[in-house]
Amino acid sequence: MGKLTGIIRLKGTFDGLTFYKTADGYLVKTKSGVSKSRIMNDPAFVRTRENLSEFGLNAKSGKLLRQFISPLLHRAKDSKLSSRMLKVMNLIKNYDGSSARGKRIVRLGIDSLEGRLLLKGFDFNVHAPLSSVLHALYTVDLATGVITIANFCPLDQLGIPEGATHVSFGSAFVNLDFETGIFESSYSPTTILELDATISTLILTPEAVPSGTGTLLYLLLIEFFQEVNGVQYSLRNGAFNVLNVVEVG
What we know:
By secondary structure, this protein is of the alpha+beta class. It is built from eight helices and 13 strands. Strands 7, 8, 9, 11, 12 and 13 form a six-stranded antiparallel beta sheet that branches. Strand 11 and strand 12 form a beta hairpin.
């Protein structure tokens, strides 16, 4: 794959080369010489068909998760979230130890400790990872979904972006079946703090414990604001906001 650097910007296929635009600029690649019909029917491409089948299932799992946390997701995400999450889902499905190749699924892969660890710590906004923003210890109660940050000092324990005057904390407790799509979500009330040296203990308590037989996900949202004349405005449209999977049960 090549990248165009000249002043002429092409889109489409010309003389065996395909030109297209991405977030990284204008790229070019050679046109595939294998037809779709051959890929879907030729025994030589059986492994390719298996990979395509699992790819579709993994993409669906990632989409389910993004859909079911949308009340938080629209406040903290990056432009390449879909592809980053698909990569993680592809890795998780490898830990499905019971399904045949081509039929491995995230639902079974994430039942393993290794699968859960792959999703734990996932940042939905790669430009604001939790590890670089929150410099305080926190605990997660796996039974209730309560997230606690004890003796927290915003001024000393946050990576504060320029211009921010306030910060808010919220959490989500989700029970999601990656195979059936059945889910239930519960959210905590939002806690807003001024960015000063006041020390307090944050306790983020979901409204309820979600029911179901799926995977339990615990998420933490941190948002930065700038207050002007008593009104709080999201800082740079959420560019500095954090959304992280702090635990997977």
